[in-house]
Structure formats: structure tokens, C-alpha cells
């Protein structure tokens, strides 16, 4: 049983690397099955968000898991290695607890990551790759996150990525009320963003999605229109603010499409927030005049503003996590002793059955029951005590005192 957390995040890797190792929904189940069926790991759960890709695994070979990650995404291992972290045992548990509690997020204390971790655990459970170890890890992880949030103010006044997008837009435009907003995608992040922008009462809002059926309930809640992604080339010039967050493996908004849009807008600026990983907007768009493009990493400075109160809560949260890590490691170590305990009990059971069979034969012959019970108890006691007494008798001079102390402790003996 070897717990490992392996991955990259916004602390260790730039967006250009993170987007290469992201797992889209269409690849997740395949990845879970492939890693376990290759016997590189007996259990696996994958957390893939805009800020991190992490594998939580039960594996005998961490190096094999790192190589698999590179191979799955067709990346050279030497290219990925400088950005990769591999955290074993208690460090893996500590990392999972910190992530779920929002201590490792770009937005300190943010709550969205907890839901994403729950989704990762559920996906692994449905795929059949969540075993005893990872089930216990995530169970403890969610419990720790709940305790941190209820016992500290780590999430108080937290500035979300969605709120940061609104703040950036307010730096570009005098008033969002006069702007038309386009939201590309219909997932949780887009829902958060449209909620924040709707509070500013923009002139017009529209949701663009691959399937209109999925986007329509979200759009109707906020009085927004719905368009398919195929309509983007024609519709794009009508929007001043664009927020995009899809699971597309390839960019949706290319430089050529935006050049045509800017020309039709007579060079009125477009503000774009790309929260997708991999990115929805071609990187070259950032070099265009009249386009203000911000990636998920660019929002970092905004969300770090005004964090003093939350930072003050970190020490208390870390103390809760430290205690929880100790408890989880104690549980793991206990599980590692299970095979030894089972073997010990199996050995005792074999001796018991053997002596019962002998006693039954003696009773069948008509032997005195008291004498049979006495012989059985003596034989059973001798067999159970044979191994420790033999080890003690044959111990070397250096081992003898240590063995004597251990046997006394195991059997509760009081030496005089």
C-alpha cells in the first residue's frame, strides 16, 4: 500500500505545460482504466482543473506513473519532469487535505476545488478504480475540508476567479452596463461568471455552447440568449466582453476569427477572459491590438488582492491538517499490518483445529473427557508458545534483551 500524489499545478508549471497534461471528460475514464489495467497502479483518481492536474494513486512504482502520464499525453518525460511533483504517503495526504481546504489554490480559501475533488472521487468510483486506500483518503479529505471551513475564516471575503473577471472588465470599460457579454460554455465556471456579470446588469448576455439544450436552462435563469458554437464567426463582432471556459482540446477562438471581428467593430476593443485549460483562445491573440486577453494565470494578481484576513487563518488551518495527517498515517500503517495479523490468526486457527480433531478422536475412543481437555489445552499452549520461545532461545547475545522486552510487551508479562 503506497499512496502517491503526482502532478503539476499553478505553483510549479506555467499554463503552457498544464494544458498539455489536462484530462478532458472524454479522456478521463479511458485514463483511469488504462493506468490500472497496466498494473502501474491498483487504484487511481484524477483531478484535472484549470489550475492543476493531479493523480492520486496506490502504486508500487511512482516512476512508472510519471512515465505513464507523459506517454498518455504524448510528451517527452524530460520535458515534463521539471514541473512535476511526486508526494508519497503522509505528504500525499497532507497535499490532498490542503488542496480540498483551499490552501493550495490561486484563490486562497476558494470553495470550488472541494466540489472538483468530490467529482474526481466519484468518477474514479464509477470507473471502478477507487479502492480501500483512496476511498479512505478522500473520505478524510472531505472531512478535513469541512472542519477547516467551519473552524476558521479561511474562505471569508474570498475573491473568486469570476469576481476577478468582473474587476478586470471594469478596468477596461467605464461601465459594464453598456456592454454586451458572451459566455462560451455551460459548465460550473461559466455559471459562476455569468452570475457575477449579471449583477452588473450588462446591456445584453448570450451563452454559446456546443449543445443548445444544455445551455438553455442556464441562459433562461439570467435572461440571456443562446447560440451554437458554429455561429461564433458571425456573432462575435456584437460582443464587447467574452468569457470562455469549455473542455475543448483545441482553441475555439482563433486569431483570424478575432481579426475579422475587430475589423467589423471598427477597432472597438474586445475584453476576453479565457478560463479554460487547455486554452480556448489561441495564444497569438494576446499580441493583437484592441484585444485584451487574460488567461487563468493572468487573474492571479487580482485574486491575491485583499488576502490579509485569510492569510491570518492559514496557521490554524494547517494545525487542523497536521493532526488529520497523523491520524490518516496511523490508519495506513495499521492497514499495512493486516497481512501479518491475518497470518498469525490463520496459524492459531490451524493449531486449534488440529487439536480439536485429536480430542474428538480421543473422546470417540472413550478416553476420560477431563484428561482429553487437559491434553488438548497443554498441546495448544505449547504450539502457540513454540515460536516465541524458540526465537528467544536461539537469539544472539545482542538480540536477547530486545527479544525479551518485545515478548514481555506482547504477552503483558511482568519481569522481576
Care to describe what's here?
With 416 residues, the protein is α/β, with parallel strands linked by helices. It has three domains: 3-157, Glutamyl-tRNA reductase, N-terminal domain (Beta Polymerase, domain 2), CATH 3.30.460.30; 161-303, Rossmann fold; 338-411, no CATH class. It is 54% helix and 13% strand. The protein contains 18 helices and ten strands. The chain has helices spanning 15-18, 25-37, 62-72, 77-80, 89-100, 112-127, 132-151, 161-172, 188-198, 212-221, 232-235, 255-264, 300-303, 308-312, 314-336, 338-364, 369-393, 397-411, and strands spanning 3-9, 43-48, 52-58, 85-88, 180-184, 204-209, 225-228, 241-244, 270-274, 291-295. The protein has a six-stranded parallel beta sheet, covered by helices on one side. A four-stranded antiparallel beta sheet has the order 2-3-1-4. Helix 12 links the parallel strand 8 and strand 9. Helix 7 runs antiparallel to helix 15. The longest helix has 27 residues, at 338-364. It is elongated and about 110 Å long. The model has no long low-confidence stretch (mean pLDDT 90).
